[in-house]
Amino acid sequence: MQDLQYLDNETCWLVKELKSNISQESYFLPRETGLNIMESAAENDNGVSAKCRNAKVEDLWSLTSFFGFSTHTFVLAVNLLDRFLAIMKVQPKHLPCIGVSCLHIAAKMVEDECNISPTHELIRISQSKFTVSDLSRMEKIISGKLNLELKAVTALTFLHLYHAVIISLTSEREEIPSIGRLEAQLKACLCRLVFSKAKVRIILRPTQLLNYKNVYFQLQDRYVYFLFFQPSVLALSVICQEFEALQSLAMLEIVQEVQRHLKIVDSELLYWRGLVAKCMTEYSSNECNKPDNKKLVWIVSRRTAQNLHANDFSVPELPTIPEGSWGESESEDSCEDMSCEEDSPCSSPGSDEKGAFFPAEFRNQGRK
To answer: Mind telling me which residue stretches traverse the membrane in this protein (predicted)?
Structure first.
């Protein structure tokens, strides 16, 4: 295997880009404190729970597919959503507006202007109960709280760079998974809050200590290990998982060389590969019913269009959106009660019954 330092100019440039993005990826991670609060929240608590967050990300995936937005738009929207939820005390009734706002902001940053649908169409297809003015106001709040001037470094950034490096180092005889297939797996991972957490606490068994070497500490009779999430490691884990499924030794050797050159710790890659494998198994199982069975309603008749157009002016505005930030010592008792009935923010419009939310090859894996 040839060392990455002594390859052609194009590959060397890709490696430099990888290193440059790794040095910046921590600036675009959600705040750990806010994610921990979200993860510990129950469905009937005052704040947004992990389940509601995951359902909203699945909604964004459906909307991305319907409007023909790129994967870059979806990944950026999820990044904005997580970063915003991690620093703000959000009431569940505002989550639909926040989610669509993040998608609209991402689309304006990524897509060509001619490919961006009108705001009222985005609201209508999402089946949300807020107005264009609500969306505009929410976008201003999100833009004010997050730094949108800099280009966010996400797992998709690394996925494309890794894929380009592998192509440059692979002979034409080798079968390389398409970038679209890898992107689909990454999008499935992003529908789980655990892949956004900045730090994970693991309790190790004595038999696991060899895998983690000296990067753990002992707490009484237990061994505790902290894993720090990095988008670069998640992207490499997705690629590793795919190459293992293909049983391609040549590809795995390239991945190991990239891992060594970027100084990615074995234990971290091992852990995230396990989570990616678990996520892929869940999505390929017959029991998986994501998103929910509620369908988007396509407008086909003139009368229906006229009725919906009239309803645009009768939608009540949302109440004033509080702008309090999470504090580590703050109490959550000031939030309003969360309702998870018919109009629950946990509900998802899902995807068109005729379309596929997740590529067919993953849904069929569990049946082999």
So the answer is: none
